[in-house]
Design goal:
4-stranded antiparallel β-sheet, binds magnesium ion
């Protein structure tokens, strides 16, 4: 069903909520009150891996020093209710790249939660990525960093709309060698040789094991080179750091720099990387032509204790559908277009980047399939509210929770990891008012049956139009 038709279907529901002040169709209007861009705008997505809502100084972390991200927020825009499509790497990235819930592309599973080096699946070729849409519009496109949407040749970034690729095709804790210390010990004193991960350039492996101590800096240098090489044409840079996913590595220059320890060192190096990217845009005169989004693929990996990040005041972290798993830090920056110092408290999602980028590039949002993202230009440019009024929280292929306006209903809750994940179904669902209670402490279901009824209606509509894609994460390379 085309997105516009679907949005229209949702309108009666949306209109019944007092906190929704505009119809979703506002999203299709051109932004007003700002000067027209000189060229098709560039897009840069800087994606951290497993960085939590509470890991940036400007978001309240007391000891991690992040001057560049803080400056980016002062010059740009902070989104305080920004969600990823899933609480683990592969499905989250599939959602970002396609603007579609991972259930639709088959990029989620209840048995294997992400892709592994023995996986035979990947993002299907018939999915339409941001890179493919922008490439069609004449953009130069580069993927630098972690991909994790399939490492076999037919699934690499170069087959999904990217002109070039440089990075690790999956997580930096994979390909662990048998001689590495057991369990957590390998992470407490990580050595490059413990994880035999490949560093790829386009479709070739150029280094193995990858020297992870210099990954953040090499990714940044690659990104800077790409910007400089494409200063005269529109470009899309997807800069997806492998850090701060464990095992944690940083360059010698950052060793011991942060009061927060190794994890803080890693974040501070990512912060410097952000500064280097934004400075390159300033120096090349491209700042006013470039929409930059900084965010994370999922919440902090709390089971790694001090080696994982912090979700701040949010509940729990990576791997679950509590807020700490899926609400992530997000800063958008575009001098001259995004009002400096603005804060968007309405809902946004990585799913929204594809339709927004498409409209900015003068392209159509794909009409032959359901796209779950919204064009968020009104909220970005300060001309109207965010068209996104709801968010679905999936774990694998199952819908666990739904946010509508300030309310979030949990139909199922489950701990992220462990031998006993304590999976519990809730009937009626648990209900939290996230405006008042972002930490999800106080169940207000009994006081708001009408909200639960509205959310049930939204779920029924969603299920009626849902077609699950062919499962990709359970396929394994056969061994003979
Ligand atoms: Mg991750």
């Amino acid at each position: 069903m085309p997105i516009l038709v679907r949005m229209l279907l949702l309108m009666p529901l949306a209109a019944s909520f007092a906190w929704i002040s505009a119809a979703p169709t506002r999203a299709e209007e051109a932004p007003t009150g700002t000067s027209a861009p000189r060229r098709l705008p560039n897009l840069i997505i800087i994606f951290a891996d497993d960085m939590g809502y509470g890991d940036i100084a400007g978001w309240g972390h007391p000891t991690i020093h992040t001057p560049h991200l803080d400056r980016m927020a002062v010059e740009g825009q902070k989104w305080t209710s920004f969600y990823v499509a899933a609480s683990v790497c592969t499905p989250s990235r599939a959602g970002l790249m396609t603007g579609r819930l991972p259930i639709r592309s088959g990029m989620c599973s209840d048995t294997r939660r992400v892709l592994f080096p023995d996986s035979a699946g990947g993002l299907p070729a018939d999915e339409i990525t941001i890179a493919e849409i922008l490439s069609e519009r004449g953009y130069a496109t580069a993927c630098v960093g972690k991909w994790h949407l399939g490492h076999l040749p037919q699934y690499l970034p170069t087959r999904q709309g990217f002109d070039q690729y440089f990075g690790l095709p999956y997580s930096n804790d994979m390909d662990r060698v048998a001689s590495a210390p057991p369990g957590r010990q390998a992470f407490l004193a990580p050595q490059i040789s413990f994880w035999n991960v490949p560093l790829m350039k386009n479709e070739e492996i150029i280094e193995r094991p990858a020297d992870q101590t210099t990954l953040t800096q090499r990714y940044t240098e690659e990104g800077v080179r790409f910007i400089q090489a494409n200063r005269d044409k529109p470009f899309f840079l997807y800069l997806a750091h492998n850090m701060p996913h464990v095992p944690l590595f940083r360059s010698p220059e950052f060793a011991g720099r942060s009061l927060r320890g190794l994890y803080g060192d890693v974040i501070e190096e990512i912060d410097r990387s952000v500064g280097q990217i934004l400075n390159t845009l300033r120096e090349t005169g491209l700042a006013e032509d470039t929409w930059v989004v900084f965010t994370s693929d999922n919440g902090p990996w709390l089971t790694f204790e001090e080696l994982g990040g912090s979700a701040g005041l949010l509940r729990n972290g990576k791997g679950c559908t509590w807020e700490g798993g899926m609400r992530v830090p997000c800063v958008m920056w575009w001098p001259g277009r995004i009002p400096p110092g603005s804060v968007v408290r309405e809902i946004g999602s990585t799913l929204d980047i594809l339709p927004t980028a498409a409209r900015l590039a003068g392209a159509e949002v794909p009409q032959d399939r359901i796209v779950d993202g919204f064009d968020i230009r009104p909220a970005m440019f300060g001309t109207g509210p965010s068209p996104r009024t709801h968010m679905f929280f999936y774990r694998g292929t199952q819908l666990y929770a739904v946010r509508l306006g300030p309310y979030k209903a949990h139909f199922i809750t489950e701990e992220p990891y462990g031998a006993n994940t304590n999976r519990q179904a809730h009937e009626p669902p648990l209900l939290f008012n996230l405006d008042i209670d972002p930490g999800e402490h106080w169940n207000v279901a009994a006081a708001h049956p009408e909200v639960i009824a509205e959310i049930r209606e939204l779920v029924a509509q969603h299920r009626a139009e849902l077609q699950a894609g062919e499962p990709q994460l359970d396929k394994r390379i056969s061994r003979r």
